[in-house]
Every structure is written in C-alpha cells, then in structure tokens.
Amino acid sequence: LTYDDIQLVPKFSNVSSRTNVDLSCKISKNYELAVPLVASCMDTVCGYDMLVSMNKMGGVGCLHRFMPIEEQARTISKFRKEQWGALSMAAIGVGEEGKKRAIALASVGTHILVIDVAHGHHENVINMIKWCKESLPVKVDIIAGNIATSQAAVDLQEAGVDGLRVGIGGGSLCTTRIQTGFGIPNVTCLEDILSVSEVPVMADGGIRTSGDISKALAIGADCVMLGSLLAGTQEAPGKIIEKNGSLYKRYRGSASLETKTVHGQAERNVEGESTIIPFKGGVKFILSGLIDGIKSACSYAGANSLDEYYPEYVRVTNAGLTEGKPHLL
Ligand code: XMP
Hints:
Blueprint: E1 6-8, E2 25-28, E3 31-33, E4 37-39, H1 48-56, E5 60-61, H2 69-82, E6 89-92, H3 95-107, E7 112-116, H4 123-135, E8 141-147, H5 150-159, E9 163-166, H6 176-180, H7 186-194, E10 201-204, H8 210-219, E11 223-226, E12 241-243, E13 246-252, H9 257-262, E14 274-278, H10 283-300, E15 313-315, H11 318-323
Parallel strand pairs: 4-5, 4-11, 6-7, 7-8, 8-9, 9-10, 10-11
Antiparallel strand pairs: 1-15, 2-3, 12-13, 13-14
Bound molecules: xanthosine-5'-monophosphate.
The site of xanthosine-5'-monophosphate (XMP) has 23 residues, from strand 11.
C-alpha cells in the first residue's frame, strides 16, 4: 500500500484551536524538532539558506554532501554561529571518505550525521555506524538509510543507529524501481519497519502534500523528509531560470545523470531523473501551509499533540481516490 491507497478515519475531537496543536517530535534518539519536517540532503534542496529557514520554522535541514569536506564543515560552522543553539544535521557517505567527512563535521559540532546511501541495508553502512559510534571524537547521533524492511531496521539498530531514514524508490524523481525492480510502496514499508523500530523513523520520498505527511505520521513515522515539496523555493540551491515568461529552478535526483555529471562522478548506475520545476518563492510560505495541514489533521484525529495522534485508516478504491479530489472543475 502507498499513500494514495488509504484515507484516515476521523475521530472524536476536543481540539479547541488548531493553532495550539503541539507538533513537536523526535528525529533521533537524542534530538527533537518543533515540527516534523526535514529538508532532504539533495544538492537542489538543502544548502546553507535552507538550513537557516528550516531552523526558523521549527524543522531541520540536512546539508547535502555533494561538496568538498572542508566546504561542508565550514557551512555547518557558519550556520551554528548565526543560528546559535540550532540543531545541525549533515549527510555523509561510507568508507574512508565518509570517515573523513564524519570527523570534519563532528569537530565543528554537527549534532546529527545522516549516512546517506541508496541501499542502507548494507555491510558498509553497518560498519560505518559502528565506526561513528566507537571512533568519533565527540558524541553525534547517527541516522542511516535508506531502508525498506524490518530486517534492515533490526540490523541497523543492532549496530547502534539513532534514527532510521525509510523509503526506497518512492521519491518524485526516483527510477530505482524501474531500473532494478526493487522498492516497497511507502505505507507497507513504514508499517513493516515500525513493527520493530526502537529509534525514531523518518519517512522519505513520495510525499506530495500535507495529507501525505499526515498519513506517514498516522502510520507511526516520527517525522518526514521532503525533496520536491521544498525544491524550487528561493532557499533551495540553484539559480532561478526564466523560460517563456515563467520562473523555474532545477530539481535533480541524487543518482541522476545530471548530478553525476555536475559532480564529476562516473556516469553509471543512473537511478534518478532531473527536471525544472516552477519557482515557488520563499520556503516559509510552503512550510506554513504544510504545518497548517498537519495541525488540521490532528484536529480530525482528536489529537492535541503528535503524541496523541493515532488515527486509523481505510483502504480506498480508485473511485474513492477520485472522490477525494476536486472533481467538479
Ligand atoms: P521527494 O518525493 O520528496 O523525494 O522528491 C525525495 C527523496 O528521494 C530520494 N532520492 C532519490 N531516489 N534516485 C532515487 O532512487 C535518485 O536519484 C534520488 N534522489 C533523491 C531521496 O531519498 C530523497 O530524500
């Protein structure tokens, strides 16, 4: 099942005002957010400006790793000096380069490192989690992924992970399922992992609306990671492009040919697309809309906070899905 296969069931509510609903949540074992929103570590989604705006709105950005180690560490360092006390989060890879990146980021005080690989249920990821936990000079929370099965969650937890990044092949620009046939639809994937998870779970990929976010949280995810919803905003890295009188920005998959070419990587194992998307203006407007939508969902679920948010769902047919969208116009 995925998000379009289900709808949430309204429950008795005593929520007096949607504005007072508490959206605080866990992102990892030791850290919390004021709202359950995380900007994806993609090079057309989260650079310095996005880190700042996500923090101001109560979420967090995960700084992408498509840049030299020193530049990434410098960016986090700068972010921590302006935004004093803010939660900082950045992506790393695996192997020797990943270790160097982890040391540089830990030494500038990064709170959370995300081991950012396409197939997170991998020996290299497990070794990297163990190495980070045993060898980093300061304590840092480690989130790892992406994973899609309960066995992966069990194995990563056994290695000492502090949070799980969940979802394979469901992202708006992903071609993994087409190229390889692998991946699990998001709702089924989350349910499987949540049946065994002992650390916070971040639902990643395929989230198009605040309704999808509300469904992911209803299944039990602690927070969500967003790519396409935040790409195309003023704060997303990249220039504004003018075409036929309209404004756009580029959005590209981390495993797309464009990303590999731009960053001088081998042009093999392409598992993502790239495109231009309409320019959306400041990200604050987008985030406010999403936050309002989640608060409204809490009201339908009779929840004054995400701790009380446990709506059930029903499966819907294609006719049910059509009914749930504006269908007069
Ligand atoms: P949305 O749907 O929010 O998805 O745009 C963002 C997530 O998609 C993943 N991602 C990729 N997956 N090939 C993939 O199979 C890619 O090139 C790619 N780039 C990003 C990633 O998990 C991200 O957070």
